[in-house]
Amino acid sequence: MCSYKTEIVTLSGSMKANSAWTKLSQANIYLDHPFDAPYSHTLNIDFIDANKSYGNRVAVELNTNDARELIEKIQKLLDSEAPSSRKD
User: Fold this and answer.
1) Spatial distance between the Cα atoms of 69 and 7, rounded to a whole number of angstroms
2) DSSP letter (8 states) at residue 71
3) 35-47 burial string, b = 16+ CB within 10 Å, else e?
4) Helix, strand, coil shares of the chain as percentages rounded to 5?
5) Which one of 7, 53, 64, 85 is separated from 45 by 20 to 30 angstroms, measured CA to CA?
6) Distance (Å, rounded) from C-alpha 79 to C-alpha 57?
7) Which of 49, 37, 42 is nearest to 70 (CA)?
8) What does the pLDDT look like over 27-63, one tens digit per residue?
9) What global pTM score does this model have?
10) Across-strand partners of 8?
């Protein structure tokens, strides 16, 4: 399952890291062995501000079944309820 492939997504938003809000500009997504989660492989997402140091990130490790369910729920919400994003 470890392909060493990484998908990089440019984002625009905010994240809370180290008890403070900061800009969110990128997500790195990959399948690999987790650092902490009790599974052999996980979907890992590192939310980062690419303009800050590497330590300024929020890391997530999800088992693959939960990752698939999360994707479905996000898609369902976006399709049914989410207004388009725009700055007013």
Assistant:
1) 19
2) H
3) eebeeeebbbbbb
4) 20, 45, 40
5) 85
6) 28
7) 42
8) 999 999 999 999 999 999 999 988 876 667 899 999 9
9) 0.82
10) 28
